[in-house]
Amino acid sequence: MQKHQEIDGDILSYLIFQSPKENRGNIIVFFLIFLDFIGIIPLISEPFSYGYFIAGIIPIIFIHLWAILYIFDPYKYEHSYYLFFGVYGIVNTYIIFLNIQKLLGAHILGGSHTITFIIGFILFLALIFGIQFGNIKMIETGTYRKLQTKGNNINISPIVAASGIGYVIGQLILTFIYDYSIRMLIYVFLFGLLSILTAYFSTNIHKYFYIKKHKDIVKEIYPEFGLPKSERNQKYL
């Protein structure tokens, strides 16, 4: 414990991990609900769009194939799981973005909606990068450490909040311009809210490199981190 206390508190607060077994559970739950059910089903539903299907199916197949590693051996690949889960966050957010665009496209009366797609894609990129910058600021300002201290009222980084709120509002404005259906507004609003969560998953990419940068500290705190299951103390599996 004394050794842990000598390590910077902000680093300790960020280097908190779930067990490999919990990592595996995350993949199963989030893939089935957020990607396969909420993401893929609307993408292939009527009115079917071959263009949106092709744009979405390649990253979907890629991330599912990559997930096999962490389903069968989450212990050995414990470190790279964070890179994988971060990329998954981007893929899932991208698929939701495609579904929003598909909803908009299905309700525009004729003509191309290239402009709305470009604007939507810019909003998507702004959300991903905004969340990344916000996450870094939360580390630098000790927000994660304060969140783990009972009795503190902490405001989430304004960058994270602005990125999420801006994305939802931006998509709603696009929806309002082209369609006045309340149902459409609700769908886009819910997709937008879910995008904030899946986009936040992408911060695990930064965590992957942060772990690599502080490898010695990680090994000091979690000596079994990244070891195969057979080499771990059964008590901590």
Quick structural summary:
By secondary structure, this protein is mainly alpha-helical.
What's the arrangement of secondary structure elements?
Blueprint: H1 2-6, H2 9-14, H3 20-44, H4 50-72, H5 80-106, H6 114-140, H7 143-147, H8 158-178, H9 182-201, H10 204-213, H11 215-221
Helix pairs in contact: 3-4, 3-5, 4-5, 5-6, 5-9, 5-10, 6-8, 8-9
Task: State which percent range the strand residues make up.
Answer: under 5%
By DSSP, the count of extended strands is 0
Runs with pLDDT <50, length 5+? 153-160
Helices and strands, in order, run as HHHHHHHHHHH
**Rg value:** 20 Å
Transmembrane segments: 27-44, 50-72, 81-100, 112-133, 154-178, 184-203
Keywords: Membrane, Transmembrane, Transmembrane helix
What does the model show?
The protein is mainly α and about 240 residues long. It has eleven helices and no strands.
Key terms:
mainly alpha; 237 residues
